[in-house]
## 1
Amino acid sequence: MIADIIPKIAGMGNDEHEYYPRPSMAGPERCIRSMVYHGLKVPRSPMPGRAILIFDDSSWHEELTADWIRKSAYQLHSVQMEVTIPGKMTLTGHIDGIITDLTGKDYLIEHKAINHFTVQKYWAGEVPLDYLTQTCLYAKGLQQVNPDINEALLLIKNKNTAQYMEFRIVYEADTAKIIERCHSTGERIPMDYKLEHITESAFQKFADVQDYIEKKTLPKRQYDIDTWRCEYCGWYQECWKNYQEEFETLSTQGMLDNEAADAVRYYKELAAQETDIKKEKEKMKEIVKSAMKEIEAREATAGEYICKLTLAEREKLDKALIPYEILEKATTKSITERFTVSRVKGGKAA
């Protein structure tokens, strides 16, 4: 009764906001082309109600985290305080808050609640560049009020497991320095990551977007057609609608530089090794399986290893049993780019 209604209600409130530069859009991973479409007021595909629920869910996670912080020895204050960020243009934003430790030291805190797999990437060492940029923009604005606040905590909650991790950031002279990442298990990993001109680059990005909007032109696509970023973008259909025609106009006589040529050679070497290893792996597997069947075993010990044969049921859709008109309606098509490498005919290229 309710499960199917809630996403529909969320989707009904899906009003498109006007484009304006804001810290949450400032990072290098945010597609500049989509920002230009937004600024040109090109209609976007409606956001699914479930996506709106996910965003709303994240904001409630922030409230829950704030409540837990208030139960600790840290003081949380200045929640959603507006800051003005100077640069090539003036940005405004609202910080998630400031925490004060027992020594009286203040830290900017920026909270994100995201999925398990993305958290795993960040814990493995990948840097969340968009979140880092947003945090440093807030730090720059906050320093206009209190120049002594030069450290920030980018606190990330795993929405699937309720675990936390954080990046400790020092922001000085428009340089972001991540000094460590910490996990709620108590594990702390020192880092030595530095990104210079971080807010300057953000302001330049907004200036570039404005220039494209005024000229009514589009920047090059930032991502490939089959990346998840494009597939989830509201301007996906508009952005790629004429790509097949564009693709046919691309040159077939391009010449790559020596660095790219070296990369191609290495790519071919890796591909050859991968093929040989796969063949050898399959050969070894067949030897072991044959040996197990010879002794009529589905589980056997081989030195320090245990080998098992198990049965797994597999489902397969029999298209022949589906009426053509239904199958046609249920079939979707998408374009992807395939990369191949072959030798130049007649020997070495000039």
## 2
Amino acid sequence: MKSSIFPDWIAALAKGRPLADEVAIVTGASRGIGRSVAETLAQAGAVVALAARSAPELERMQQALSEGGGRVLAIPTDLERDSDITALAEITANDLGMPTILVNNAGIGLYGPLGQFPIRHWDRVMAVNARAPFILCRAVLPYMREVGRGTIINLASVVGIKGYVNQGAYSAAKHALMGMSKVLAQEVQADGIRVHTLCPGGVDTEMAWLSRPDLKREELIQPMEIAGLILFLLRTRDGRAVIDDLHIRRASGSPWF
């Protein structure tokens, strides 16, 4: 697989294919952070199930990664359908092997003041950003328990910690994801399963452009930087130090404390 897309520090983490024994599921894998995460995990040797709604985009990505030497499988998934979510876990286990890594990255943002926010939009945001990760975590846990280890990484956001005007539904969903992750981490610790959350600020994705058009694009965090941090968490999994939650901000932004 071509490594030119990876910064040197990420290429160094991926060297030697340290994830060669891992099977990963990445949601929202067709673009943005999810695409970078899938590329990085495949580069590090993991077998990767690519999940997103767009079958054509996933198939193009599967072809590109396969031609580069990665072992990947495109699984079109609508995270608003419970049956699609459970099927994602089952197809991965049957076709690739029991999943040991889950990256809940997919998300949607719908914005507006809460006083006029449509209930149907609230339900969609909660379904994709909070309900779907819960269902998918529940679906992969039996496989991880059978293997005796596993890593779940939930992409929250700065809005999982803070609140921003016109982002009430998105913030509520990400706060819910954070709360679920905190409890899940305790409930599965004895099973050898770790749960991490990442809370990045503005990342150079379509969602960030739409939600924060005031930010300068050249100052946004790059999706590959988030992927590199995820790879770092996976590379250091067997150490004695554990990072439960990462707060990640733009270098040009103000410190969180």
## 3
Amino acid sequence: MNNRENLQVVFGSGPLGLSVVDELVRRGQAVRVVNRSGKADVPAGVEVVAADVYDRLAARNAAKGAAVVYQCAQPPYNKWVELFPALQGNILDAAAEAGARLVVGGNLYVYGAVEGALHEGLPYNAHTRKGKIRAQVDEAVLAAHRSGKVQAVIGRGSDFFGPRVMGSTAGERMFLPALRGKAASVVGNPDLPHTHTYIEDFGRALVVLGERDEAQGQDWIVPNAETVSTREMVKLIFEAAGYPLKISAMGKWMMAFGGLFIPEARESVEMMYEFERPFIADSSKFTQTFGLRATPLPEAVQKTVAWYRQHGR
């Protein structure tokens, strides 16, 4: 039975937000989803509320009664610098006003380019526009925790894939062609190791972070399956789809050319360092602390292929 006294409010109804919702519903929690339209494909019993979160009062009203607030919303990729501070700042204030714990779904941009694996002991050392703005808004979250304004925690995932994930580098450009026996489009050097995060693992991990007192005030890299090369990842996709492997790789200059016409591609150019060198995320801190392990990569790929068979365009 849903417990209305332990209301969980999820800001954002993209793949991550809905994965959080799925996990909360599995745990019998009462859930409210907040987005701009007031519409979302959610399980029965989940409340969906329309709110312009760039309006501080609207964000506060949407979070009323929350025990835990999940920040899974983000601006359009080409508007991060202009819009992210207000978006995350308003959700932070809304959680504080409600007396709720705040769980932020973050990424690995804040660490910048590093030698070796990415881990939580690294300083925020972003060198890209989007990395710097994420570092700014995430540091504000941790500062609010340190000041006692709100209990807060940040869970960080790598490039993600899975059900509902379309726009990621491991989204529709990789999975849909495979289902047709055509070349999957990948970014950068496909023979370098690159950690990918399964979206259902990401959602489950954020819920764990919302539950656990010892998680608060810290960064956590969420569980990831073993890191393989992008080529090996795509090979698993084609095996699940029943076709021989075909890959088309896009380098930095091709991305820059595409950016002349597509704003999202233009914004991706500065992040190409992730695909031109090994990009490995170490999630051992999370797995050792909470005992939660990632879905094995072949299983996660098979589930994603099955979802695309049913839902892909």
